[in-house]
Every structure is written in structure tokens, then in C-alpha cells.
User: Fold this.
Amino acid sequence: MMAPTVLFVPGLRDHVPEHWQTLLQEQIPGSRCVPRRTEEKLSCASWVRDLDHAIAAIAGPVVLCAHSGGVAMVVHWARQHSRPIHGALLATPPDFETPLPEGYPTRETLQANGWLPMPLAKLPFPTIVAASDNDPLARFDRVQAMAWAWGARRLVNIGPVGHLNPASGYGVWPQGMALLDELG
Assistant:
């Protein structure tokens, strides 16, 4: 069997070269990334369409590696599409149902752009959810409830890492590679 291709699914924010996903993608030969949107940046339908196109461009098995808003993209995509996915690492999913910190989209903006409600159906592929216990975008208990609703193989408490991004002091995230290896 052909080795899975890792497809990185970034969040809604602009590209950050020192983000763990960017750094991890550089380490994984043949991996790909869903292109960042320059227009309709908050449109859930547009992101889901872009994710679907990126998956369709991969001939063999796919492992998704999503962060933040990218997790929301994956669960919205899974509700609408049936292409088999080998597995998914869903890191620090946001809780769009509760108000996000200042500087992030409001609940009303997320609703208007199709992000709400967040799908909570069982995902049709093996999933590992990695959650921070001090993420400003989602309380751990809320992520735990999402992980169980999605039928995650397991929920990994990655400790007090904020939102697991450069703003929280994270670039390199070695545990990410180990979790992807577990899915691959």
C-alpha cells in the first residue's frame, strides 16, 4: 500500500513561516497544504471547497493535519463529502459556539459565514484530537466534548500550550510528528 500523503489544513489566519504546521510540512517529503485564501477569507463554503479540491488532487491515501479553524474546515468537509481519509490529526480546535478573544471573528460573523453550528457528528475516519488545557479559543472540556462527538480514537492533552501557535510561543512541535506517525 502507498504511504499516505499528509495534507496540512491551516487555520483562518494568514501564513506564518514559524508556525508548527509550516515547519512540519518542510520535514515531510511530498506533503501538501490547502492553499490560503486571499478572498472570502471567512467563507466556510469556500474553505471547504478548497479542502475538497486539495484532497481530490492527491491520488493515494490522505492523512489530514488540521489546526484551529482548519479543524472546523475538516468537520464541515466530512459532513458533505465521502472520500476515504486514512486519518486526521485535529490540533487545538476552536470553540466557535462561544465568544472568541478580541481580534478574532465574532460569533455573529462566524454564523453569517457558515461556520455555525459546528458539526458534531462522528467522523468517518480515525482521528486524534490534540488539545491545550489553557487555549484562549476553547476550554479543554469543550474540546473534550467535541472529540467524543467526532468519535476520536483519542484525545491528547498537550498541556498548557495556549493555542499552539507562535503567539503562544510555539513554532516547532515535535509531538505533532509523533501523532501523525501514529495515524500513518
About this structure: The longest strand covers residues 62-67. The domain at 5-12+21-26+41-51+61-183 is CATH 3.40.50.1820 (Rossmann fold). The helical segments are 20-27, 44-56, 69-80, 107-112, 140-149, 174-183. The first helix runs from residue 20 to 27.
